[in-house]
Amino acid sequence: MKRSNPQAKADHLKIKVKIFSDGALLNKSTANGDIDVNAFQSYGYFTAFNQASPQKLAALGTTYIEPMGLFSQYHSIKAIPDGATIALSSDDANQARGLRLLAAEKLITLKSNFNDLSTIKDIQSNPHNFQFKAIDDTTGVSVLKNDKSVGAVLISNSTAQAGHLNVLKDALAHEKVDASTKININILATASKNQHNKTYQTLLSLYHNPQIQKWITKQYAGTKVEVNKSIAYLKEAK
Fold this sequence. Notes:
D-Maltodextrin-Binding Protein, domain 2, 10 helices, 20% strand
């Protein structure tokens, strides 16, 4: 799938898009050179992948941060009954973020070594005895609307947008967009050998073009917040 726009043409860039549903596979394909640049992951996920994999990636730069939300048929978090089923993404990139959001809302606690590849197995305590159901993240809105056995669903911003939900307005809770969540800032990543590739750096600059940002803001109703920071800033993330 090819993408082009006047800004890309002006920078002599030809962009071909490939869609992956498996983040780990996409990172491996990028690390071995089958994919030039990928644009799906948070800095935390990127760091965890590099720690776990012999194949290494390099971060080209930051793009945006978009909050994940907790959506429910109930009107408040307190109304979600003990023992309720909470649906969350089956993929590592979003499952860990969802669990962190539940922990931030004091619904569960997480093990001290919890990271961006962690899963429900890394829950330390679950005082409300919630049950967890792993789902394909792209089905989150459908599960919310149609599966009455589920009390709440953790949904990524992109999936919420596709289902005509605004995570900032419709969720019972959502990730904060501030320094405390900068580990969730998304990046462009490439194979480590391509870290200083000038063409890829041009692609990063294109992302922050004012016209591109204007389109993103309109397209995603302000839920993708631009972040134009150095990688050194992200390395300070806890």
